[in-house]
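Onboarding guide, step 5: your first structure request.
Type a short instruction followed by the sequence, for example:

Predict the 3D structure of this protein.
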Amino acid sequence: MRSSANTPGPRSSGRVRLALWIVGEDHPKACTGRRLVARGRVAGLASRSSAPRGSILLDPHADVPLSPADRDAAFAGGIAAVDCSWRRLGARGGYPRGPWDDVPRGRRRRLPLLIAGNAHHYGRLGELNTVEALAAALWVVGEPAAAEALLAGFPGGGTFLDVNQDRFRAYGAADGPERVRDAERALFAPG
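The system replies with structure tokens like these:
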């Protein structure tokens, strides 16, 4: 999804720091999180408790969706995520228990509803890989160019943006979490 002069998009005014704690459950060659850290695009965290103070923590079990209202917090503290396997996520002792529960710092936010573009989970609702999740977070807080740059070099990165183009526009236009929820209902309502 490329911006054009006729397509309004979020404005860019800086850089959001990204941090990642890798649980190590995925095959190392398939792990997009490991590749992001190796490429120097994301800071690797030594442990769950080392999430940057004031960061937004992406947590699929959080009640509040990420929205453009989180922009200032994203620029101030960054965005942190946990890289773990979707297969093992449900087997962690039941909902909502997960590796996020032990992270002491951070403003917890779930990503708005999006469709996966990666080969392993293509077309599945919410089953994003790590690079898709971080790119989605960047887009929602107003950094679409940074999102595109993060996805560059990853198979399915462009597909992820294209498949979710309308969703990103709707979420990017929301002024807060309630408007993101309204957009989710409108985008995913049956019928």
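Each response can be followed by summary notes, for example: Confidence is low (pLDDT under 50) at residues 1-13, 91-100.
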